[in-house]
Amino acid sequence: MRTLQFDAGNTRLKWLLRENGQPASSGFFCNTEDWDTVLPCFLDTVGKLDQVSISIVSADERFEQIKKHVLATQAVPLYKAAAKKVSAGVTLSYDEPEKLGVDRWLAMLAAHATNTQEIKIVVDCGTAITIDVLDKTGVHLGGYIVPGISLMKKTLASNTAKLRYVESTDNSDLAPGRNTADCIHHGALVMLLALVDRVVAQYPGSRVILSGGDGEQLEELIAVYKEGRVSLMPDLIMDGLEIAVREDRKGCAG
Ligand SMILES: Nc1ncnc2c1ncn2[C@@H]1O[C@H](COP(=O)(O)OP(=O)(O)OP(=O)(O)O)[C@@H](O)[C@H]1O
Ligand SMILES: CC(C)(CO)[C@@H](O)C(=O)NCCC(=O)O
Ligand SMILES: [K+]
């Protein structure tokens, strides 16, 4: 069984190829690339697939674009995940589940499936940063949406005369900056960490489950990391996508 998974975010289209459920290879395309050129090439070289599944939070046209190229190159079912009120032991707090970003939903499914009997603080550090709180029984208590690190810095650059966008330098330094670049970069990190630490402090004994493009640089900076209560799970959304497909199959069979 060969499954190709896509996680289409607002910055990148990530893919993961699984052989019999196990990750075999992975990569990404940037949203700024010409997908009409890169996707057909990629789908031609990836080999025969049995299934393609997708989590998408970027524009609907992007889904149509991926679908067009998948169906043109592979005779496979394409599964598009959507948030639900209840599935795989997770109960969503939204009255309108379809309004929740599917990436958040899938991250919660995968976090709950770790089965650790702890409150989970699911932190996904992508273009936007989302924090979702799941109680021990899988009930979603709610969440937060804030700009991601790059977005915070881009916003400063595009709304001021004297600030320019700066790439991160020494990531783990949280000291007050002594030049503009450090003031901006350390400021973004401290803001984000203050938020995460504050949410964690509200739920004693909770576990932080961390994912997304900027997840790794935050891991060791989160206060409860020292207590062994941070789990970096880079494939969180893809793991959630596996669970969602499995649950949907069960639903069809039953
Ligand atoms: N190779 C890379 N290309 C682009 N961004 C990267 C890369 N590696 C790390 N990043 C960081 O990852 C962040 C984007 O994270 P990610 O790729 O998870 O976002 P995304 O999936 O597009 O976002 P989202 O799912 O939130 O819409 C950027 O802010 C950037 O700092
Ligand atoms: C917040 C993002 C952009 C994070 O990728 C995504 O989950 C999304 O577009 N959500 C829709 C709004 C919501 O989740 O309430
Ligand atoms: K994401």
From TrEMBL:
Q: Where does ATP bind?
A: D7, A8, G9, N10, T11, R12, L13, K14, T127
**Pathway where it operates:** Cofactor biosynthesis; coenzyme A biosynthesis; CoA from (R)-pantothenate: step 1/5
Quote the catalytic activity from the record.
(R)-pantothenate + ATP = (R)-4'-phosphopantothenate + ADP + H(+)
Q: GO MF annotations for this entry?
A: pantothenate kinase activity
- Co-factor requirement: K(+); NH4(+)
Q: Where is the active site?
A: D103 (proton acceptor)
Q: Which residues bind substrate?
A: Y94, G101, V102, D103, R104, T180
Q: Which Pfam families match?
A: Pan_kinase
Q: Which UniProt keywords apply?
A: ATP-binding, Coenzyme A biosynthesis, Cytoplasm, Kinase, Metal-binding, Nucleotide-binding, Potassium, Transferase
Descriptive protein name: Type III pantothenate kinase
Species per Swiss-Prot/TrEMBL record: Endozoicomonas gorgoniicola
The gene from which this protein is expressed is coaX
